[in-house]
What we know:
- By secondary structure, this protein is mostly beta strands.
- Among the domains are: 131-182, no CATH class; 204-292, Jelly Rolls (Sandwich), CATH 2.60.120.10.
- 7% of the residues lie in helices and 42% in strands.
- The protein has two helices and 24 strands.
- Strand 3 (31-41) and strand 4 (50-62) form a beta hairpin.
- The relative contact order is 0.18.
Amino acid sequence: MVPIGSIDGNKNMEFVQSDEITFEGGTSYREGSSRHKLLLEGKSGSPGNYSLVIAECVGRYSPRHRHNFEQIRFQIEGEACYGRAGKLSAGMVGYYPEAVHYGPQTQDAQSILSTLVLQCGGASGSGYISRKESDDAVKALNGLGSFKNGVFKLSRDVDGLVDGTSGKRNLDAAQAIWEYVNKKPMIYPVPSFKAPLLIDPTHYEWKSSNNQPGVAERRLGTFTPANTAIKMVKVSACSHLQLTGGRDIYFVYQGNGQINNTTARFGTTIYLEPKENLNFTAKTDSVLLNIHLPDLQYIKTFE
């Protein structure tokens, strides 16, 4: 992550070029190999914490499972299979609500999946543990048992995961990590959806902007009382797009342009807080993915 400080008075914005970030080791508690580029992350310990990565996977497998946080996945390359939920092909967007089961996730062993993955605390206020907390927990849990096929198996000579947790012998790997970090059993929120939503943006019409010439939108959906929202924005060459903030992420998917004196190209990623804004000028026809993170001001502990 490369914060670039104040631009046009935007003191809290963040701006990263994904092609300038190196890959790190990926999730070690699922099967197959993976690596990721960490683009953005929130404040650890807050209900609004989040992480945004570009993940690359080969031979990926995870069992049918669920999380107590939200996920949005934008498929850049390859086709990911999520069992009965269906397949996510390049250009599609998946919304995975809190507490909703999905999977098993499988992949052709010869193919490469490249996915933009957002994981964030959702409307329930359950929060999202940081990637560092997760990595540290995996190291500690390997001393208490083992990870196999996406499941954590507690060693027979260990009484329980940690004091105060469920003490089950087999847990989904992500749940085991959460319980180890939080030192208590995970209680999943009541799901608001029956299944994840796999969205094909090409089935949406572009709706022209009323006040920004050369700009059009595909509004893919707004979800939960916290107003998590996803849309795609098309900017014609030589046109201008005002990027507005409200815990908003913008990811350049196609084309290129200019933000002040900085080139915006594939993988350029911007985060804007409320009342912050920037101007994007398209050099070529461009498409940006815009994700509005959940509004969690109603949660008292939110900072």
